[in-house]
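Here we describe the complex-level prediction in full. Unlike the single-chain runs in Section 2.1, the two entities below were treated as one system.
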Amino acid sequence: MSRTHTPVVEQWFTGDGDGFTLLGTRCAACASVFFPREDSHCRNPGCPGGDLEEVPLSRRGRVWSYTDSRYRPPSPYVTDPELPWQPYALIAVELLNERMVVLGQAVPGVTVADLAVGMEVEVVRGVLHEDAERVWTTWQWRPTGETV
Amino acid sequence: MTAEVAVLGAGMHPWGKWGRSFVAYGSAAARAALADAGLEWRQVDSVVGADTVRGGYPGYVAGATFAKALGWQGARVASVYAACASGAQAVNTARTQILAGLAEVVLVVGADAAPKGFFRPAGGDRPDDPDWLRFRVLGATNPTYFGLYARRRMAVHGDTPEDFAQVKVKNAAQGALNPYARYRNRVTAEEVAASAIVADPLRLLDICATSDGGAALVLCSMEFARRHGVGDPVRIRAVSTVTPRYPNTVLDLPDIATDSAATVEPAGETFRASIARAAYEEAAIGPEDLSLAEVYDLSTALELQWYEDLGLCGEGEAVKLLREGATALGGRIPVNASGGLASFGEAVPAQAIAQVCELTWQLRGDAGARQVAGAQVGITANQGLFGHGSAVIAAR
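The structure predicted for the assembly as a whole is:
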């Protein structure tokens, strides 16, 4: 029996393959975009407040900075203490249209040695961890290999 | 310019891993500060505690916890929390009470007993808590954010890991002179380079530890200080407790993303720069008037960032300032003469108070082997996660 794919956070991303996107919200009054999504009230202090509509974020952006996690993070990050720790890279990505920086893990296999500030990356669906019942999905950044 | 309050006493419990309750450290620091002020506990009108989230319920009501430990005497009480900025909030609460005439003598206390390893969020499933989410979704510990800032400086300003190591070398040399510091050994650049990478490009010796410790201040009105026979006390001239302005364009702990600047143009200065500017404006001074600065060096690279945010040099010039020796003892503007977090490790609610203790001793000329000659004006700076600015300016 195949296990259920469950997003690690509901309604933060959607789709698969080339259709995978992060989901934010946009204020109908001032057009400000929010990620993580704001669903109650626009946070622009100069805005009277409008309806917040779900909006996909740009799939591609540029590396603003990057680092990695050489030691096992504490709970609630889920790891198998039986297995040796495998470091992963974290990438902060600047989305040019939204003029914002969004943090995420790099796809498995991409290390800090493969990254440079300014490099183009795209968002893809990835697996955060798996347990007996579920495959927990998340977003990850993958270098496009294209020169910006 | 805001009216001033006097610092009558400063006290600390040495930083370390002592295996005792935060109450023990805070009470010891409070007694030391009262002795330094030449006051009895029963002369205190009000006690303000900086909370800890690691001590159970007594930590959330730190003011009352310390008041009880010192012996209930009926003082007014307040407890404040603002993460790393908690100490500055406590100082400001005390100052506000004094300037409002609600109290003449206020005791400010902060203390922590830190666990081993990474700080982690409070337990339970809390998907509406950004601090819980960044661990659950990304495993983003505090050092990973420090790593992001360090790498960004390398890309934008050309800083190198060797530059970062020099900050540790400087602060370790200064901390070696401070009896309250946890780490009192000098460190070489080779030792930094040989330590394990924690969050690329930062190594273990680039990143501050977590520590036990306690710090306390006795603040009073200028009139009380004069009556007490202290005609020329160290004075607090400004306390900056500002928040960011939308859109905040620097990725701050514990956020997963910045605000979007697509529709609202960001302010010309970053949040950290605005923390210092607010303090300078309140004190009616500028960075050129400073004798010394105590800044929050959670990492070596962050100390360099503070040089620029405090206006000690222009943007991108921090390494030059460091390499010139300007920020070392004997330099033009010594930074972290105490040894900083590099030598102390972080005891969260005590740390911003400890920064003011150091200013107090320096401005009185009581700092011993680490004395900054002729110190007249000092600034402290830090930033608490969730948008808490913290800077204190003290003068003699």
